[in-house]
Every structure is written in C-alpha cells, then in structure tokens.
Design a protein that fits this description.
Layout: E1 26-31, E2 39-44
Antiparallel strand pairs: 1-2
C-alpha cells in the first residue's frame, strides 16, 4: 500500500444505509445437515453499498 493512502473499513449489516432503488444488504447462511462440513449461503447487496462513509 502506498504510504500516503489510508484505508477505511465499514461493517455491513441489515441496517447499513443504501441508496433508494439499490439492493439492500442481506445475508443468509444455512448448514445442509447437522454436523455437515458444507454450508449454503447467499449475500445480496448493491455493488455501490459501503462505498461512502
């Protein structure tokens, strides 16, 4: 990373602000069976979400 650059991180959750008309953040995760090593999940959000602080 360049020395003059600063990184900002923002956690995303269901209360994250989004632009009207854009897809609101949502996350879903489910194990297929009890003790399964495989999980199924889905993340939905606009590619613009979280860009502005």
């Amino acid at each position: 990373m360049h020395e003059s650059m600063v990184r900002y991180f923002q956690h995303l959750n269901e209360s994250s602000r989004y632009w009207p008309g854009e897809t609101q953040y949502s996350f879903w995760l489910n194990s297929l069976t009890e003790g399964s090593s495989v999980n199924v999940g889905e993340i939905r959000m606009s590619t613009h979400l979280g860009i502005h602080i």
